Amino acid sequence: MTRKIAVETLLAQAGNRNDGDAQCSVSTPIYLSSNFRHASLEEARNFDEKTQYAYSRMSTPTRRVLEKTLSELECGVQAFAVSSGMAAVKLALSVLKQGDHVVSLDDLYGGTFRYFDYLHEHCGVDFSKWDGRSLAELKELLNERTRLVWIETPSNPTMKEVDIEKLAELVHSFSSDIIVAVDNTFYTPIYQKPLELGADVVVHSATKYLSGHNDLLGGVVVAGSSKLADELYFNNITMGANLDPFDSWLLLRSLKTLPIRMRAHTENARAVASWLEKRDDVERVLYPGKGGMISFYLKDEEKVAHLLKSLEIISFAESLGGVESLITVPYVQTHHDMPVEERLRLGITPELLRLSVGLENSADLISDLEQALG
What DSSP character marks residue 362? Predict the structure, then answer.
């Protein structure tokens, strides 16, 4: 289709009118084959890995439809669907080499920091942390070895927001060779398209909102340029952490309802955040105003355990972005590997709770929190 269409239409039609499907299926089939026949030796010699199929690590028909949809959704050149959010982080950072320097936001998913530590200790990559406040301070951290700047916005779990457009403009004015990478898991392309704002690569834990049903593990990387896409493609087929055909199909199916789900998550989260802000036993609520993620501080640490034990609808479980509401304690779960002093400096305290507001009735969620807080 040549004319521009709305994101709702793009996703609802994802996989329909697929030129590679001779049966004209409205829903993309699941191709479970691990390999594909060549018609002739001549075809094998002239194999085009961008359009043909040989081995499922390189490409499968189901995953290719998913990746095409994801690339269009994020306004990128090429997307890569991989086996987990951390596999996506690893792929995006596979462009680094010994001696490179990375600047990252100081508040990120704990697993990302864990991989940063691995790259520093075992691969000789240096890292600097930026608090997200002053772009002038960010500029001071850049140097001739800086290869990449990594941010989440809003951040996990303290909901810091960064102006991607201004950041990308500053970084690229310092050096056009520096890659600006944005983890877009919390907002999704429904609320934010980093590549349109000047970023070079976008990362998602597709386990979260893109899937939205707490039933699959996946990750996504979207490149904004052909040069970067080619480098990531080679690294991806070399490392082989691809998303399997069935989960590719599940994720493609889930994307069809993403716009509707994100609107409902936002509506529910706004209601819950507004209620939490009025509670005397809640010290502070961190909510950026859209999306389904809320962090909040209880005034009394002793109430945390009682709250988690007393919930009847909201589940005390890791992860986020699903139809079921989940609550976690980042201090002891997602960010446990971070040094205590660093956690406390960032405001990741034992009293901080991260709530992923699902698609239940908001009045029921509020009632559940109310009885659990007691």
Answer: H
Tell me the C-alpha distance between 301 and 286, whole Å: 17
Task: Give the whole-angstrom CA distance, residue 14 versus residue 11.
Answer: 5
Spatial contact of 360 and 268, defined as CB atoms under 8 Å apart? yes
220: helix, coil or strand?
Answer: strand
Cα separation, 202 vs 188, whole angstroms = 10
Q: Tell me: domain 258-373, CATH 1.10.760.10, correct?
A: no
Which SS3 state, helix, strand or coil, does residue 33 take? coil
pLDDT tens readout for residues 211-270: 999 999 999 999 999 999 999 999 999 999 999 999 999 999 999 999 999 999 999 999
pLDDT surpassing 80 at residue 2: no
Domains of the chain, residue spans: 7-255, 258-373
Comparing CA positions, the residue from 241, 261, 181, 253 lying closest to residue 15 is 253
Q: Are strands 179-183 and 146-152 parallel, antiparallel or unpaired?
A: parallel
CA distance 229 to 248: 20
Bridge-partner residues for 130, per DSSP?
105
Cα gap 213→208, rounded to integer Å:
8
H or E element that contains 245: helix 245-255
Most confident of 13-22, 336-345, 363-372: 363-372
Which helix (H) or strand (E) segment holds residue 234: the answer is helix 226-239
Asked whether the beta carbons of 66 and 30 are under 8 A apart, the reply is no
Which sequence positions are flagged as catalytic?
57, 109, 183, 208
Please give the Cα distance from 53 to 60 (Å, whole number): 7
The structure's pTM equals 0.95
Give the domain 7-255 fold: Aspartate Aminotransferase; domain 2 (3.40.640)
Measured distance CA(294)–CA(276) in Å, rounded: 10
Which two tokens mark 286? 């961190």
What average pLDDT does range 301-320 have in this prediction?
Answer: 97
Pairing of strands 219-223, 352-356: unpaired
